[in-house]
Amino acid sequence: MTIMDRESCNKMLLGTWVGGFIHSIIQVALVVHLHFFGPNEIDHYFCDVHPVLKLACTDTYVVGVVVTANSGTITLGSFVILLISYSVILVSLRNQSVEGRRKALSTCGSHIAVVIIFFGPCTFMYMRSDTTFSEDKMVAVFYTIITPMLNPLIYTLRNAEVKIAIKKLWGKKFFWTSGKEWGVII
């Protein structure tokens, strides 16, 4: 509460909304000026910018570069901000007790896992040139469906009640070894 007060939280929230709005407006403004004739079906699971650019009947090289720069800036900027915040947390842990460090590292470990699972595919999709690969659809499904499904699972596995329920469900005894990893007794 000493670092994150309501005003700081509101500023971060407003910054996120404004950043997302500006990012979206730039991409829509770039695509709306293109001419489209012929096939109107994209080879993708959802209407993403790069597949829409493939349908345009004009040269989209410059638009593709700007879209990649725009998306890359948002993706890389968010990732760098997260890395800086985790670095500040890790540096501040030097002054904490062993138990406080363990709890903070446990929470940060879950957060970092989710960040990597999300930003890995996003980096593959949006921080590269305007080319389409056969893997794009699989990667898109991963970061739009699989990652949000894994997110609650990653966080609930830290809950003691969930661990007990899993023990009962699987009929196995799980235990923590030194508070860091899972152990299984069959």
Automatic annotation (TrEMBL):
<feature type="transmembrane region" description="Helical">
    <location>
        <begin position="74"/>
        <end position="93"/>
    </location>
</feature>
<dbReference type="GO" id="GO:0004984">
    <property type="term" value="F:olfactory receptor activity"/>
</dbReference>
<feature type="transmembrane region" description="Helical">
    <location>
        <begin position="138"/>
        <end position="157"/>
    </location>
</feature>
<feature type="domain" description="G-protein coupled receptors family 1 profile">
    <location>
        <begin position="1"/>
        <end position="155"/>
    </location>
</feature>
<keyword id="KW-0812">Transmembrane</keyword>
<dbReference type="InterPro" id="IPR050427">
    <property type="entry name" value="Olfactory_Receptors"/>
</dbReference>
<keyword id="KW-0472">Membrane</keyword>
<protein>
    <submittedName>
        <fullName>Olfactory receptor 4S2</fullName>
    </submittedName>
</protein>
<keyword id="KW-1133">Transmembrane helix</keyword>
<dbReference type="GO" id="GO:0004930">
    <property type="term" value="F:G protein-coupled receptor activity"/>
</dbReference>
<keyword id="KW-0807">Transducer</keyword>
<keyword id="KW-0675">Receptor</keyword>
<dbReference type="InterPro" id="IPR000725">
    <property type="entry name" value="Olfact_rcpt"/>
</dbReference>
<feature type="transmembrane region" description="Helical">
    <location>
        <begin position="105"/>
        <end position="126"/>
    </location>
</feature>
<dbReference type="GO" id="GO:0005886">
    <property type="term" value="C:plasma membrane"/>
</dbReference>
<dbReference type="Pfam" id="PF13853">
    <property type="entry name" value="7tm_4"/>
</dbReference>
<keyword id="KW-0297">G-protein coupled receptor</keyword>
<dbReference type="InterPro" id="IPR017452">
    <property type="entry name" value="GPCR_Rhodpsn_7TM"/>
</dbReference>
<feature type="transmembrane region" description="Helical">
    <location>
        <begin position="12"/>
        <end position="36"/>
    </location>
</feature>
